[in-house]
Amino acid sequence: MSFKANHPRCRRREGGSIGTSKGVWAGLLRVAGAAVLLILAGCVSQAVITEAERSAVNAGDKAVVLLNVQCTTDGQPQEAFIQPTFTREPLFLFGVGTFETVGEPRIAAHRYLSEETRRAGWIYFTLSPGVYYLAVLGPDSSVISSAGALDSQKYLRDAPRWRIDVPEKARLIYVGTLQTAGKSHGELLFGGEIIRPDGGNEVSLRNDQRLARDILSEHFQGAGEMQTILMKRWHRGDPVIIRSQKQDSAR
Predict the structure, then answer these.
(1) Distance between CA atoms of 142 and 196, rounded to whole angstroms?
(2) Residue range 133-146, pLDDT digits in tens
């Protein structure tokens, strides 16, 4: 997995100079382009599940697929899903490949059940029965602006992927906890920390099903038992298995 380390916003401070005005404007334009990309793609934080989604889950037409992401920076705990500001961008970007996209990932929104679960690294997707491929980029402080400046789909296509299986009539699914690590590489022009993936630490998956069960039972009372179906690492060259969705459970 490769990341653009020479993005205009990622220049370090040297002797108090911030480079040419042309370079600064180019960096600002790329950030603006990334913001537009996020708005158009719907990749914004939404802390409350909609009533339509809740009804679809209760009917068994869709499942809440819960994932936890744990992160460290320089060996110290790092909040995976930080609140974005002008100087801090999200550290993770997700894409979901479906039957319609033949497994190729498309940008997916960051969805949280509550502020508490966001801070603890829990993110969820609502998915109809089928087979999906989850692309995960991060931790990387330039992951969003790079996706906006480059071809976002090609950027996601090269990301590590995990296969997610959603069986018929499943309502609540926990797919695992990703353990990730980053390293600090100085500061951005406007003071934000530059974080890149720690190449010496392989991303791993662990099982925190008890924690997941407590969270889902709190937010979805009466939706039934949670299923633990750990996602599986997909490597380039592995077969892509896709399954069409029933008409009544399609998005």
Answers:
(1) 8
(2) 999 999 998 887 77
